[in-house]
Amino acid sequence: MSLNDNVWDVSKAATTYNIAGWGDEYFNVNSKGFVIVKPDPSKETEIELHSVMKEAIAMGLKTPLLLRFQDLLQHRVRTLNEAFASAIQEAGYQGLYRGVFPIKVNQLREVVEEIVEAGIPYHYGIEAGSKPELFAALVMHKDPESLVICNGYKDAQFIQTALLGRKLGKKVIMVVEKLEELRHVIEVSKQIGVKPWIGIRVRLHTKSAGKWALSGGEDAKFGLNTADILEATQILQEAGLEESFKLLHFHIGSQVPDIRTVKKSVREAARYFAKIYQHGFKLEYIDVGGGLGVDYDGSRTNCESSINYTLSEYARDIVYNIAEVLNEEKVPHPHIVSESGRAIVAHHSVLIVDVFGMIEKTKAASNVTYPAPCHKLVQDLLDLRQTLNKKNRLEHFHDMQQIKEDSETRFELGLLDLKTQAQIETLYWELAESLVEQYEGIKLVPQEILQLKNSLGDQYICNFSVFQSMLDHWALGQLFPIMPIHRLEEKPDYNGFLVDITCDSDGKINSFITGENKIQKTLPLHSLNGEPYCLGLFLMGAYQDIMGDLHNLFGRVNEAHIFLDPDEPTGFYIEETIPGTTIGSVLADVQYDTVSLAREMKQLIDSAIKSDVMKPSEGMRWLESYEKGLKSSTYLEFT
Fold first, then answer.
1. What is the pTM (predicted TM-score) of this model?
2. CATH number of the domain that 419 lies in?
3. Which residues are CB-neighbours of 549 under 8 A, at least 6 positions away?
């Protein structure tokens, strides 16, 4: 759908895509119309995403392309730790902050390495929720003063591996999720002869809201209720492991949108902490779990894709509420642990996709004409088009809807030919576009007109897979900021939505963030002019890297890891490139052996040669092309 002409500049672009709302201090638009990133806002360096993309392409990578800004990761770690340090100092809190990064949010080695290194000055640790994560965490963990928190259900091997960490002098705490698990931990630790460090997860009454609300509350998957906790303390006493009980844990869900939920849960958990401490267990840590959210839509509200608090407010409310409850209970302040993952990694990753085609809903059909005499339905639409104005626009809408329904019924009954049906469809969408334009600038637009406007959206065909790169959008309806990374000095001339290259009708994105803090079904986009047109999909660093599936066997995309460097003319350098998954490797993931595939293809070609279907030289060229294709990208390549 084409857009009306009006005043446009880069500030209007920034407002249209609400980049100030969701970009925090990291993303903006420069005067040339390019999206820029400041990976470390304490430094002056600004990088054009388009320039980074072009350099990566020059190094042999192609879109879709994931850009990781490692300095941004480091800045997020510093910002989180300094927020808690400031809150602790301001409140006169007697404990320390000992945060951990939950590697389930992004297990990629390069990501975890940067976080661990950035966290060394703060004794920032790691959380693992499975055996594979713990195997990695024990090796990645370098600082003996930082923690390794073990969540999730545990078997003997999980427990033994955690105890190996204790034997190596690491502060590994196993968080118990159920009473049977506590007994198992005690049994295995006695067999091995290593005293465990134990945490207990309490199942709070407080419940969050949003997509992950079921993580907390009385029906939560994990945690012990009050009676279970009393029995757990008795089990520990009988085993002589009172000193092993180090930590009380709770978790109310990921992406907590409302700060009031945080305050309430912290106060409830602090009360449990105090009562357990008074029961004779000198706990050292209180773990507030995850939940620190990201403002995906930039609305600064308590809706599920946003948060109504800042990082500083989050830290202050945790520190002050724990202190207030424990001061009242006359219990020493423990060290505070949080497991913030989404807020650490979401911003650092941007997916660049190229648009290679467009399906216009209202594109004029050059072969559709209206010579007299026309069919009555065609003439009726022509009359509506001729007489449409602001006074009769709603009446005309109802009339055109009736004509469209009549035509569809008649066509199904065989009463309309193809030419007439084509005339009706073309006129209907032309009239629909004109009618929607009649409502531009009106505050109270009828719902049926808004639906018509959404149906006018053009399809922008993008070279990526929603199921591989944006699984949370498909599965949960999670919003992600999306906008062009260039041409922002130009006014977009269409409203469109994105479709991917999978053979699935769900492979599309039709929920977008706008500058009015409203969710729209279409996004302002530019017409294709023969040059590459690239979109940025932002805040992609949390969960999307690891949770994508192999729908249609589209694998991982190409990656480039970017570091700031003031000595470089561009202010940055690409430290590492990681090629995306090849066709052969994804086939191997589903039990196809590439050597066997090539051998069997050779047999097919040999048979074709023997049957005189192919000449030998032609057959060898086809075989070479097949074998080369097994080593190529799963995504489309146009150059």
1. 0.90
2. 1.20.58.930
3. 467, 468, 471
